[in-house]
Amino acid sequence: MARKKKKKKKINQYPERLVWLRVYNDRMLMTRCLTIGVLVLLFGVGLSAASGLHVGKGLAYSSILTAVEQAQPGDTVWIHEGLYSEGNIAINKPIALIGIGYPILDGLHNCEIITVNASDVLIQGLEIRNSGQLSTIDLAGIKVLSSDRVRIIGNKVLDCTFGIYLSNTNDCLVSKNSVSGIIKEEQNSGNGIHLWKCARAVVEENHLTGQRDGIYFEFVTDSEIRYNHSEYNLRYGLHFMFSHNDHYHHNRFHHNGAGVAVMYSRQVKMTENEFGYNWGSSAYGLLLKDISDSHIWKNIFEHNSAGVYMEGASRITLEQNQFRENGWALRVQASCDANIVRQNNFFGNTFDVSTNGSLVLNSFESNYWDRYEGYDLNHDGIGDVPFRPVSLYAVVVERMPFGLMLMRSFMVYLLDKAEKIIPSLTPEMLKDDKPFMKPIALL
Amino acid sequence: MFRIVKYVLYDILQNRMVIGYTLFLLAVSLGLFNLSGEATKGMVSLLNIILIVTPLVSIIFSTIHFYNATEFIELLAAQPIRRSILIWSEFLGLAGALSLAVMIGIGIPVALFAPNATGITLMLMAIALSVSFVAIALLASVLTRDKARGIGVALMLWFYFALLYDALVLFLMFSFADYPLEKVMLAFIALNPIDLARVVVLLQMDISALMGYTGALYREFLGTGWGITFATLVLTAWILIPILLAVRVFRKKDL
Fold first, then answer.
1. B194 Cβ contact partners less than 8 Å away, ≥ 6 residues apart
2. Total domains present in chain A
3. Do B173 and A400 touch (CB under 8 A)?
């Protein structure tokens, strides 16, 4: 609307200020010409100054391998549009490898495509496809070995066993890449982005699909995973092992075989992610196994068989998350202790919380439960009677999974009611003393 | 035969109770959908109502109707009409009227608020349950001569299928918790039409929970084309077996 109005004004004013406009237009034209000229000049200078090595049809080099061999440290190798299948390209010096118009590097299913053995390498704008597959060596589209400050930006990796593979690196950046595999069997496929023994890595804005695990972290510390989108992977959207002090946020994990797993780690921050549509006999939105001192804040869990499954987890704070229409919102095994579940919203889950023992070492406080039927006499927004999120039937199903057949039977409903009045089988101490009457506003 | 069905049907449709039942279902369904705000939640409450109310009304109404129509049936039996045709017409009339009530009472709200696979399954199951309990009611009625006793038997049957059965299954589950009962449970479900209807609807509704764990087994079995066929066959059996037995008894019955 605003734009339209402006246009109208201009047309109206045009006859009156015709002269001024003409002068103005002339000026604009001159500035533009100048800018373009300067840009062209700069570009030319830039190309020659960086002593770029151009690879492509009718250019200085026709093979990437020779260009890389000829390049001096600090050089840029420009790869122009085309199809290159030159086997393995090993980079042993700090150079930049930049694609123009997504040149295709094809491994013809028999080798690893790019192997980086040097620090300060930049790989950008390439399309890498068809790596080989071996059971002894993890072949990848791009592999970085024992190097620091390597940047991998905006590449497309298609049908490789491992997509991007970082091993023993520091301060690397993996950004804006897309990795998509063709779904094979779990044992023959690799991970989208695989980090092993790295520190201070940043993985951001990547799109991962059709691999074994979307993102795989093992022995990775002080790193950040943000704004990634991981879906339709065979196993986990994100797989964390022995990785401490990491932070992942604003990621979306959807339709993965088993959701997201964080195992054997401590001090992991998980914030503002979306976990959804992980359905199956052992699928979880988020699986926490032997993890401690972590913070789970403002995530959304919806349509998972189990929203969060906790086993051997301690000192974890689950705060301000949304649990919507999961089979089980929270499954807390009795091996968990000192966890705090606070200010979360629970909507339409089949079971809110289930546990396998009567010992409760975790605290539930100030959550909103859509099943809460208590009252609030003093109108302070907090229910006056405690809410017990574990129903008798949830306990029965935990013990006898085939009891699921009686779900929503009237008999079960009656038993649940009776149990609410006089708890006998459900853990008596598992309760929320200050349940909210209305959903907590998050966002 | 169709003429008799027509008379029975007219007779029932003029009955105030059927109209009341239709309006009750309509009010409850509309109320539940409006109150709960979310269609899924409304559907869950509606499922509970259907599993309790539809069988109850079907079985009691059919029994009362059959006893009230004793004179009409005796009169017709005196005519050159085969007895099997007589009882089949009674069955079709009752089943038709009650199905119509369900179609209006539940079908309209479902079409308005949740016109999806779950909604359609819910309605089909409600119809199947109605028809099945009409058949069971007729069997109970032809077996007992006394009206009060017949109604008593009908009530007992409803009580058994709707409540006692699940309690018994639960009890068995607790007693034999150490044994692999997955397949046995499947058989138990098939032995009660109400349970079967419930599970079929649940498979459409609570997918995420049922998918987990053992649910996968049931989903594999009941959720696939095979399972649907199985459920349909068993429900058909729950309609055909009681009514065929009723026909058999009625043919030899001393009126």
1. B51, B55, B129, B161, B162, B165
2. 3
3. yes
DSSP A357-411: SS----EEES-EETT-----TT-SSB-SS-B----HHHHHHHH-GGGGGGTT-HH
Q: Which residues partner with A195 through β-bridges?
A: A166, A217
Give me the number of domains chain B comprises: 1
Residues B112, A422: Cα–Cα separation, whole Å: 40
List CB contacts (< 8 A) between B202 and chain A.
407-408
> Does residue A99 lie in a domain region?
yes
* Same domain as A143, residue A24: no
The partner residue sitting opposite A279, judged by closest CB among B41, B44, B208, is: B208
Domain that holds residue B229: 2-252
- d(CA A305, nearest CA chain B) in Å: 5
Q: What Rg do the C-alpha atoms of chain B give, in angstroms?
A: 19
What's at B138, amino acid-wise? L
Residue found under tokens 């549009």: A81
- B198 in contact with A at a CB cutoff of 8 Å? yes
CB-based burial of residue A275 (10 Å sphere; 0-12 exposed, 13-18 middle, 19+ buried)? buried
Q: Is the ipTM of this complex over 0.85?
A: no
**Interchain contact, B188 vs A405, CB within 8 Å:** yes
Interchain proximity A279–B52, CB inside 8 Å: no
> Does residue A208 sit in the same domain as residue A170?
yes
For residue B222, the number of C-alpha atoms closer than 13 Å in the C-beta half-sphere is 30
| A228 shares a domain with A213 | yes
Q: Is A402 in contact with B181 (Cβ distance < 8 A)?
A: yes
B245 touches chain A (CB under 8 A): no
Q: Are residues A101 and A190 in the same domain?
A: yes
- How far A280 CA lies from chain B's nearest CA (Å)? 5
Domain of residue A11 covers 2-47
Tens of pLDDT along chain B (255 residues) come to 788 888 888 888 888 889 999 999 999 999 998 887 777 778 888 888 899 999 999 999 999 999 999 898 899 889 888 999 999 999 999 999 999 999 999 999 999 888 888 888 899 999 999 999 999 999 999 999 899 999 999 999 999 999 999 999 988 888 888 888 877 888 888 899 999 898 888 877 766 556 555 556 666 676 667 777 888 899 999 999 999 999 999 998 887
- Contact criterion met (CB < 8 Å) for B211 and A410: no
Residues in chain B with CB shorter than 8 Å from the CB of A279 are 207-208, 211
Do the Cβ atoms of B139 and B100 come closer than 8 Å? no
